[in-house]
Every structure is written in C-alpha cells, then in structure tokens.
Amino acid sequence: MTNPPIHVSTLRSLVITVALLAPLAQIKATPVSFSHFEYSGRDLLPSSPLPEGNYRNPILAGFFPDPSVTRVGDDYYLVNSSFSYFPGLPISKSRDLMNWQHIGNAIDRPTQIDYTGLGISRGLFAPSITHHNGVFYIVCTMIGGHGNFVITATNPAGPWSDPVYLNFPGIDPSLFFDDDGHVWLVHNGDAPNNKPLYEGHRAVWLRQFNPTSKKMIGEPIMLINGGVDISKKPVWIEGPHLLKRDGWYYLTCAEGGTGPQHSQVIFRSRAVTGPFEPCSGNPILTQRGLDETILGAVTCTGHADLVQSANGQWWSVFLGCRPFPDGGLLTAGRETFLLPVTWTDDGWPMILPAGKRVPLIVPEPSATTPAKESPSLNGDFTWREEFTHPTLDGLWLTIRQPSTERPWKLDSGDLLLSPLEDTLDGDKHPAYLSRRVQHGRFQASTNLEIPQELGVDAGLAFFQTEKNHYFLAVRRTTTAAEVIVELADSGHAGVIYQAAITDHGSISLRISADVNQVSMSWSTDGNSWESFAPPQGIRPVSVQAAGGGLHFTGAVIGMHARRKH
After folding, report:
1. pLDDT for 466-490, tens place per residue?
2. pLDDT tens, 493-504?
3. Which of 43, 66, 108, 453 is an active site residue?
4. Which residues, in sequence order, are CB contacts of 280 under 8 Å at separation 6+?
5. Is 421 a catalytic residue?
6. Which of the following is catalytic: 108, 172, 238, 425?
7. What values do phi and psi take at 115, rounded to 5?
8. Known catalytic residue: 292?
9. Which domains does the chain have, with CATH numbers?
C-alpha cells in the first residue's frame, strides 16, 4: 500500500520539533541556499563615461593596499596586501597599467599559510613582486605568524610555491636583481642597535639574497637611519624598493605612517650599499595638509612602487584613501592609484608636486590605445553572481583560511553555505563569503531560503572588523520567522532590531550605503521592500571606528550563515 504524500508544512513542523527536542550542538545544520549575489556601486564624484584618452583613479578600487608592480615584456603584474583574508595576495595583470584583470592569488591553498587566531589587520603585509630569468618572486611578511618569507612561480596566475621563511627581523621586504648578478633584499627594520631615539624610529636595511637556496648571505647593512632627516624625528620609514637608472641606485620608501601624514620619499647612491643621499625635493608624493573633507579628496598616499614601461615612460603605483566629504569617514580602506613619474634635469623622480591633489581622472601621457573600464575593479558598475560556474572566482574572500572541508559548495546555480558555530566577532573561520566594498554609494542584495532549523541565522554581513560590522539576517522562531539587524560597534555584536515576517520559503535581503548612512531592507515577494527605520550610521563600519591608521583593511560585504552552540 502506498503511503499518502506528506505536505510541506508538515515536514517543516517535523523539522522544528526535532530541533526543539535534540541538543543543537549535536545537529549538523542544513546548508542555507543562496540563489545569487548582486553588487552595484557608484563613485561619489560622477565621472561616467570615462573621457577618451584618460584613465580612472583608483585603478583598483576598494581594499587593495600596498601595491607592488613588475613588468615582463609587454605585461604588468601587480600584487597587494590581504592581511587575514583568504585567498591571499591577489595578483592582477595589465597591458597598459590602467586597465587590470584579476588573474589569481598567490596564497590560495589553506596549507600555505596558517591564519589561526589572527585579527583581521594581522596576516599578510606589504608583498613585493619581481621577475628574473622566467621566475616570479614574492617576498612578504606574515605578521602574527612566522615573519618574512619568499614564494615563487613560473606563472603569476599560479600555482605559487609554499612559503620559505627567511630568518631576519623586520617587515616589508623587497627583492632587487642587480645587473652584475647580485641579488639584494631591502627591508624595514629596527633602529641601530635596537635602540630607537623616539617613537616610530625605524631604519632601512640591506641584505644579500641567494635565489637558489632562498637564504640570506652575510651581515645586514643599514642604508637609512630614521628617514630623510633624522634631526626632525621622521617616523615609520618602510615599504622600501630599489631600482637602477643611469648608473644610480634609487631607494624609494614610505615615511610618516600609513595615515594622513603618509608620504613617499626617495634617496640615491652610486653604490647599492650606499651611502644614500635624500632628494632635496622630498617628499615626492603626499597629500598631507590638504583638506580631506572636500568631494574628490584623496588621503594617506604613499607606499609607492615604480616601474618603467616598454616605451620608456616611468609610472608609480601607490596606495591612497577616498574619504567621504563632510566628515572624512571611509569604508573601502586603502586603494591602488596610478600616476606617471617625471624626472628632473638632475635625475630625480617626481610623482606629484607638493600641494597638488591626486587626480581621479588622468590624461594618458603617451596613449597608444584609449583607456577602457576595468569591470568590477573601478568606476561605476553592477556585478552579479548567479553561482552557475563550477568554482567561485578568486575575488571572493573568506576570513582566515578554511579547513580542508570548506563550509560552502556550488550546486546547480545555488550557493550552499553550511552554518558554523564560528562567528564574525570571533577569531576562527566563520561561514562567510564576501566581496570588497568599492564605493561610497552601493547596494548589495541576495535571495536565500529561510533556514528551517532553530538557532540558524543567515543573510548579508557588512564587515569591517570582528568588532565593527552589521549583519542583516533571517532566522526561524518556534512560531514563524523573523528578520534581525545585528550591530557590532567597537565591541561584541548584539541585535538592535527584529521583526516577524510572513514565511514564503525564501527572502531577499538588501544592504545599501549612501555616504554616511546604511539602510537595510527585505522582501518576501521579490517586489515590495520593507525596512527598519531610521537608516543606520556608517561610522560603526568605517576605517576610523576600526582603528584609523592602525587598521589596515577595508570593508567587505557578503553572505554569512551561523548556528548557535
């Protein structure tokens, strides 16, 4: 005899009954199904369409700090810091330095780097990329881990080797292959004899490097003590890079810290070991002293790297921030900018004259082809993920590395995200897949099945740090379902709003930001949207709230699912 079919509502009641009777910690929560994710962003200073013969700054919008660039033939490759996000060390490729494509991540295997327990602003700092004899090299610092390391690849898109750790103190290493066959590593390090004269007193050191054994050779040599003029107590000389031009060795460094006092300075010497003299025109790039509250302002510029194009033109990539007008807050963090470099008659490079603002629309100095937009990397764009590809692309980010069993999988056009007990305000690996926030005005949305188990929350999270984020989620109650807004404002997260909803099986969630305000809304029918009033403030998820100059990442937004212990 055939049993009669069980109605869907009956099945739901059974699931809820089981959830009430069984200890939640013993239940493996059913994955939450997300059907799509969409992000639409607009720059605060309208500039679309891009005028012909110009390119757009930043070239990489959103959380792409500490850029380093190298040229191989007609191609350019750029790497950025990623701190405690995985995959790490994003690699971008360009033919003209203005239009970029993400091609991979140098850290894309959970076994390469251990992020366990690290805060969001720890992890992978200031990578530097170089190329020599068919091999790409990245040297980088793992803060909170094993320190400085080198990885290699023959294809910059990957795979990259496991790290080889280098036994020396300091941060921000960079390799330089000299034309006499010697290979040098320059880095930030302690003041002489580890006796700083003032807070922020650092030095730049030089070491010889063996690219075959991947070991240091000989004793370190101090190149710069303190900065341009130690009598003025310069702080945080870091991010050094060596280059050679017309018989001169140039050493370019960041100075002043990565906040509003950030700058780029330059030194030169006839010998790689020094002594190095500073340029009388230092700094060669800074925005300090300029009003950061006006529309179109760029701040915190520095940490530059220089590269020469095939036609002889020199360029610089560097980090900068775009604060919101009328308050100066920002969420996107430190972004990658590009400017042409000019050389003085006496042989010094200049990125930007003192007092001049970083332009957001830049004429190409020697254009060969009209600049194009870089989809999903800068300018105004809308991007949608339907989860129809066999794998997620490399711009999706998680917090810290996953275990060998990832909490997500793709299934016939859906993302299945398994709720974990790990939370956004913890120090483990939450079930969270996110994209960089790249605009001051944006809207992010998704559609998901309402979780059927008690104790499961799922939805959209707007995340700056463990202690600074919004979470718009849906959850099951014993009688129906409800939408919640959770806020972590420089502390542990707590629910600030909640509302019962009609259960239609699925729900659409949307988070919108408009400069200094954040709005959160939901739809149970896909047409009409409801929201909590009033809009929330942006400050809790701003860089300033997260620590200002001591916070090194930018905001991300994406899908999160969790379950109670």
Report:
1. 999 999 999 998 888 999 999 999 9
2. 999 999 999 888
3. 66
4. none
5. no
6. 238
7. -95, 5
8. no
9. 8-41+381-563 (2.60.120.200), 49-363 (2.115.10.20)
